[in-house]
Amino acid sequence: MREKIRKIASKKEFLIAAFLVLILVLIYYKDNPPKGVNWNMVSWGKSPASLIIVGPSEIPGAGTPFKVGIDLDTNNYLVNAIQANIEYDSRILEAMKLDTTDSFCKLYIENRYQNEKGLVKVACGAPSPGFKGKNRVMTIDFIAKSFSNTTIKVREDSMVTANDKKGTNILKNFDSKIIRVRVAV
After folding, report:
1. What is the fold of 49-181?
2. Rounded (5°) CA angle 21-22-24
3. 136 has a pLDDT exceeding 50
4. Domain ranges of the chain
5. How far is CA 122 from the centre of its chain?
6. Could you tell me which residues come within 8 angstroms of residue 164 by beta carbon, excluding any fewer than 6 positions away?
7. Minimal CA–CA distance to 125: which of 110, 140, 144?
8. Pairing of the two strands 58-59 and 176-181
9. In whole angstroms, what is the distance from residue 170 CA to residue 130 CA?
10. Quick one: which of 89, 153, 98 has its CA closest to 124?
11. Are 56 and 179 in contact (CB under 8 A)?
12. First vs last C-alpha separation in the chain
C-alpha cells in the first residue's frame, strides 16, 4: 500500500513541476523579431538610390558656359558614402569648376575632374547615421567647345553605400542626359 501511495505522490509531484515550468515559460517567453534584420534595407516597394543629372537640354552655342547638377535621392535609405563617376565627351564639353558646397558629405577622398578623360570623380562620405533624403552632391560648370549632341552620364562604377555596417551599394539607377549644343543664330 505504501508503494502505491509513493507512486501516486511522485506522479503528482512530476505534474506539479511540469505545470510550474510551463507557467514560467509562458511568463518569460517574449516573441522578439529575429536578430539581424536590417530595417534600413527593407525597401517597402521603393526603388533604390539614384544619382540624377539636372541641367539644360540645349545650349545656345559653342563657348557658352552652363551648369549641371548631380542630385542624390536615397529614397529614405540611410547612406554614409557615395562615389559619383560622371562621364562626358571631352571633345564637345570642358569642365571648368566643380562645386560640392551643398553636399551632405563631410569627408572627401576624391574631388576632381579630368578633361583629358572626360571624367568627373567625387568620392565622399559622412559619419553615422549618414544622410537620408535628397541632396545636391555637386555642381559642374561646363563650357561647350563645339556644336553637337552629347551625353553626360553616371557611370556604372558609381556607388551609393547604405549605412548597414556592410557598405551595401544601393545605387541601381544610372542617369544620363543628352545636351544639344546648337549653332548660335
Report:
1. Immunoglobulin-like (2.60.40)
2. 65
3. yes
4. 49-181
5. 15
6. 38, 40, 41
7. 110
8. parallel
9. 14
10. 98
11. yes
12. 120
Q: How many CB atoms lie within 10 A of CB 165?
A: 10
What are the tens digits of pLDDT across the range 29-84?
A: 555 544 444 545 444 445 689 999 999 999 998 999 999 999 999 999 999 999 99
* Length of the chain in terms of residues written: 185
Cα 179 to Cα 50, 89, 153, 158, distances in angstroms = 20, 11, 11, 21
Cα-only R_g, the chain: 30
CA distances from 7 to 10, 12, 17, 115 (A): 5, 9, 15, 94
> pTM for this one?
0.73
Confidence class of residue 144 from pLDDT cuts 50, 70 and 90? very high
Q: 152 Cβ partners below 8 Å, 6+ apart?
A: 53, 55, 68, 86, 87, 88, 93, 176, 177, 179
Q: Rounded distance, CA 81 to CA 157, Å? A: 14
SS3 sequence of 122-147: EEEECCCCCECCEEEEEEEEEEECCC
